[in-house]
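Z., the sequence and structure:
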Amino acid sequence: MAGPEAMAASTALQMVGTVMGAVGEADQLKASARADRENARRGELQGELQVLQTIRDERQASGEAIAAMAGSGVAIGTGTAADLIRQNAVEREMEILNIRYSAGQEAANLRASAANKKSAAKSAIVQGVISAVAQGAQGYANISNMNKADAQAQKERDSRLPRKTGGGGSVGSSGPFGSTSYRANRSVGIYSE
């Protein structure tokens, strides 16, 4: 059976291992949160690039439509031609709003995930410290119980040992005034010095 020193060392190592595991978990969560924040930023950037591409496509399509109408002799700024150009512009604006909304929602979700992971990292450290303290308390209780059991076992061993006595039935005692020997006459019940 391991002694108290070995138990204390084992408990200390368990406590250190628990805290180090919590720190490692927190580091992983923080790294994942950083990745989520970066992905949110990139998602917004990608959304804006899509917006620019949509604007470019809309201008190109409108230009081609205007050129086609002008080539066929339709008056460009009036009537149905103007309504068609305006309708295309409105549809593109709606598409742009949808692109920005989707990119913004995805970025918001990623930032919320990053915040949750950052909070979980803090909780992991706190939980690790609490677990380590609980392990230390349990180790202390185990060592204390082991010491009590050892003391009780020692008392029991001591009670089984023969007691030291002086020769001829004398019981010797030593006190502050020197040594005194009493001889007991057991048969008569008389004590003499």
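DSSP finds two helices and three strands in the chain. Residues 22 and 125 are 5 Å apart (CA to CA).

Let me know what you think.
H.
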